[in-house]
Every structure is written in structure tokens, then in C-alpha cells.
Protein 1
Amino acid sequence: MSARIVASVVIAAGILIGTSACGFGAPQATLIQYDPSDGVSGDVGDVAIRNAMLLSADGETATLLVTAVNVGDTAESLTVQYDANGKKVTELVTVRANSSVTIGAKNEPNVTLENIDTAPGDLFPVFFQYGEETGVQLLLPVLTGEQPEYQGLLPAGAPSATPTAIPSAPPTEAPAH
């Protein structure tokens, strides 16, 4: 009788160990940090750079679209720097204390990058920094602005993406019963 109990306990322990450790060696997806959006992110001191991207129809002029979140108690003058025809171009955007600003959105500050010579689909380096904080260079994806959420945000004078009408089949009458 005791051999039967011992065998049952051993079998139960084997089943328990075998089924509870099935994910032991597998990476946990919730621990992997990634940007669940079209843009990329980075941090500069108290300012978080979120969902940064460029919108361009021609690859020469682009709108910077990025949300800067300042968790600090003082307003910061965020430096945005990029290369244009071999020269560094610097733009400044103020981010108020304990707030955020979406640069490039409607009714928000705008930064237009000119003479960048990059094609939609490429990655373009942009440097973000403020004060004495160590800056961060991010490789921003260059998008065409054809996605509905980005329409109307292309640089002024750039051709905007025009939606294409998709023909639909004429409605058919349902058979009478």
C-alpha cells in the first residue's frame, strides 16, 4: 500500500513539474521594451521623446512629428539638430514644466527639416538635447504621410496624399421569400 502512495506522489510531482515549467526557458514578451507605434523613442534627462518620426512626400523636406514629455519642474528648451547638405541645423522648441507638446501636430509648434535628401522608408538621424543633459541621437523613420492619421501634417507646399476611391459593386436585391 505504501509503494502505491509513493508511486502516486512521484507521478503527481512529475506531472506538476512538467506542466508548471513549460515557460521556464521562454522569454517573457511583457519584459521586452519596444515602441508600439510608427515612431521611435528616447530619453534626455527629464524630457521623454516619444513616437518620433518624419513625414515627407519628396524626401527633401519633412515635418518632424514627436511628442516631448517634460516630467521636470522647469521648462526646457529642447534642441533638435540634424544634418542638411553637410551642415548642422539646429531648431529649438520649448517644453513647459510637467507637460507635453506634440511637435508637428495641428495647432502645435512645428519643426520642418529642409534639404535632408532622404527617401520615405529610410531612417534619418536626429539629435535631441537640452541644457547640460547628455543628448540622444535617434534614427527616425521617414513616412509618406499617406496614413489617415498623418494626413494634413506634411510640410507646407508638399503634395498631400490623395485618397483613392475604391469602386464598390452595386447593391443587389435580396431574394423575396
Protein 2
Amino acid sequence: MPRKLRAQETLDTIEDEILFTRAALEADPDAADLLPMTDSWLALVDATRATDRTARIAGTSASALRIVANGRLDDACTRFGRTLAIDTPTTSPRWRRFFGSAISSWIEQRLVAQVAAVRAWLAITDEPVLEAHRAPLAQWSEAAQVALDRTAASAQTRGAAQIARESLAEDLTRERDGVYAALLQRAGERSLARDWAARFFRVERRRGDPDAEPEGPPSPAS
């Protein structure tokens, strides 16, 4: 009986399973007419692969944007703080209006909190030093917020990709079982070898032998 496919397997591994079964069916004249039962399988893998790629692109894009925006926002906040510190004691209310700690510590806070703080700064209109730094602070706090939003959206995309993988494994396992049942029936009708139906599915590689290639079931002893 074909093994149960798992969602944790790579799509290449699942595709190899399909390619083996299709090639084996095509090669055996007693089974070749069952090949159409597998015609949709590769398309299922392709669709799942596309969903998986979309999720990876979304996640990587969000991560890259977050890293860039976070770094540039840190730079903008640091430049603003250093300029403000030129004539403002760090114990003064003016300084505390913007920074509750040293700049190097302040920029290490969570990005969502940093964005909220900078956005609050941008509502202030009576600080001349802030005015000189407003443009980069506005630009990179906005970019950081976009990155945070994309990160949240990519989590949903990853969830959809995982569901697609689980559905693929379940659907192909069920359809492989259907092909196996048809092969068993064929073997009975034509008095074929008892293990004939199993030969159309790869077996799992042996434990402790990571370099061994999965193969079809061994031939019966003569």
C-alpha cells in the first residue's frame, strides 16, 4: 500500500513520488491504461508550489522592508537626537519630550513602539530642531508601518500556504490509495504477483542511510 504523504515533505519529494508512479504505470502494459488516474497530480503540486512561492515572496519582502525601514528610522532618530542634544541637556523637559533614555537605548525598543513614538513627535509643531528632521522621520516611520502591516499580512499568506500543503498531502494520499485499489483489482483479475500493485509506489528510504535513494519495492525472491 502506498505510504501516507505528509505536509512536512518538500514539494520536490512529493513530485518525485508522482513521477515515479506515472513512469511505472506507463512502463507496465497491464497498468498503462490506469495512467489517466494520475493526470491531475502534477498540476496539484504546481498549484501548491505557486501558493508556497507567493507566501515566501510575501514573507521575504516584508522582512527586507522591515529591516531597511527599521535601520533607516533608527538613523533618522539618532540624527535628530544628536542635533537636539547639542544645546539641550538630557535631563531637561525638552529632551524628555522626545527621549526617555539615551538614544542608543531608545532605538532598541520594539519597532511598533518606535513608530508610534515618532508619529507622536510628528504631531508637534513648536520644535525647530524637529522641523529640520521631519521629512526623514516621516518617510521612514511610514515605511516602517507599511513593513509592520505587510508582516502581519504575510502571516496570513503563510497560513494559507500551510493549508494548501496539508490539502495536497491529503488529496494525493487519497488518490494514490485509489490507484492502488485499482491495481489490486487488476492483479486479481489477471492473476499477477501478490506484490505487483505495490511496485508502482516508491518505498521510504531506509533509516540510518540518508544517502540511499528511495526505490520501488524489491522484486520477489525467485
